[in-house]
Amino acid sequence: MITLKRVIAHALLGIFLAACSPTSNSFQADADIIRLRHLEHYGKLLSEYHAQTGTYPFIGENDVPAYVFIASPEQKDDNKGGPPYAHKTADFRYLVEELESILKYDIKEYYDPQYEPDSKPNFYIYMVDGGTFNFAIHTHEAFPFSNPIGKGYNKIEITNNPNGAPHLVEPNLLFTDPAFRDAVSRTVSKPAFFTSRENKNLHATRNTKQD
Questions:
Q1: How confident is the model at residue 105, as a pLDDT?
Q2: Do the Cβ atoms of 167 and 147 come closer than 8 Å?
Q3: What is the pTM of this model?
Q4: What integer is the mean pLDDT of 170-191?
Q5: Computed from CA positions of residues 201, 204, 208, 211, in that sequence, does the dihedral angle turn out positive or negative?
Q6: Is 29 in contact with 141 (CB distance < 8 Å)?
């Protein structure tokens, strides 16, 4: 799994270095807090799903790795590539529908607040491979719990199967980590701006047909 993830990371890095759009350090500092909060949001949904079903969405349904790219209408065209091996992809709306069918309530859809890519992907990724799920976000800042990929590109992943990899962490362990709690509790300098971006796409998969 570690080798596989290195291949994925370097493939994605090449895609986004080819079409980068610089952003300010102040934007990235705020955006990273939002990204961490979104990771906790989705991690808790996945844990709640597991508590009711004993498994995770799409586990056991594919014979090759399957990916869901969690991209808003502004971001979905930025993902032009994918991992260089056999895989399947599913639209985010199917993950939303699957979660809601079990949880029995409408979930909020949160997306990376950065509309245009820079040296890192500007969307989140849910991946299933065998009996393992990974959910990844990409931050500008390097955290104690992140995996450095390149300059301004750090990956943070939760999983049900760390398999000895130091930067793959089970959701509850990450979310109770003091370093994570400190980072996610930081003050956003422009809360109204980021709340507006969040609220714009809370149910985007219902309102926009995605390819």
A1: 96
A2: yes
A3: 0.86
A4: 96
A5: positive
A6: yes
